[in-house]
Amino acid sequence: MKSKPPAFQLYVNDFLSGTSHMSNEEVGCYIRLLCHSWDRDGLPDDEAILDRLAGRAFARAKGYTEKPFFEEYALVMEKFAADESGILRNSRLEDYRNHVVSLRAKRAEYAKKGGESTKNKWAKKVNGKEAKRPSKRLSEKGPKGGPLHTSNSINISGVNESDIRLVLDKMNEVLEAKGFKSPTYKLTDSRRTLIAAVVEEYNDLPGVLQAVARTTERWADTKYQSGLNPDNFFKLDKFNPHYEQREFMGHKDDSNRKEANRRIEELSSKFLNPETGDFSSEHRYGDGSLKPEAHAELKQLKAQITA
Predict the structure, then answer these.
(1) In the chain, which end has fewer C-beta atoms inside a 10 angstrom radius, N or C?
(2) Is this structure's pTM higher than 0.70?
(3) Residue with the larger pLDDT of the pair 130 and 207
(4) How many Å apart are CA 304 and CA 263, to the nearest integer?
């Protein structure tokens, strides 16, 4: 959103006591995810994306780790929980975010009242009538009090009607591609108002379209599908996490991704062979190290799901 808070407070004593059971690597992962969560208004519930955000690419490239992210950083992920929209959030961080947003709103209200007071000082009596300081904005009224622009060119707050339609069309386009009846959602007056507010707030139509496409792709045919209803989806407080996470495109082919993760887990597993008394298997030598072909396949699969 506009002028989002650039920083959050870190209460040192609470942080140290709350992470005393973690390793150095887990603490590093935790603080990185907290920063990304603050900047992106939450985290996506996607193991591959979290893996990248935690900076594990170097560790994997050097062979320091082969475990899936959720397994290796289970203690870290206990600090985050999914909200009703499937966005992972840290409760302490969100409490502070709400505090900052509330404080900013109060300050904005105080500033507004101060401005009104200054404006009132310009009011004066001329021949028994009030003459106020002229507005810097042009009148939005045309002849006889009618609108200066038609709804086909300009809508609420000066947002183009074509842009508003483009945003909702993007959602319907993605839904149609996934087999839903088209058009899934129609443009009503209330939805027009909500979408116009979103387009004006972010002043980034390509980014808004990207956010709509990403979330629609991920939520369609899932338990979060009801959240795509435009009457709720385009409310500013609801839309912000989707916009902040618009670049996390994820994976369109979930079946291939699931198969890749299954194979990664299979190759990463290491068990004692009861017949030989060591770790020898189809993929590993007796000392537990991966055979070259298995190591190459594992590296390729991990690159595939984190691309």
Answers:
(1) C
(2) no
(3) 207
(4) 12
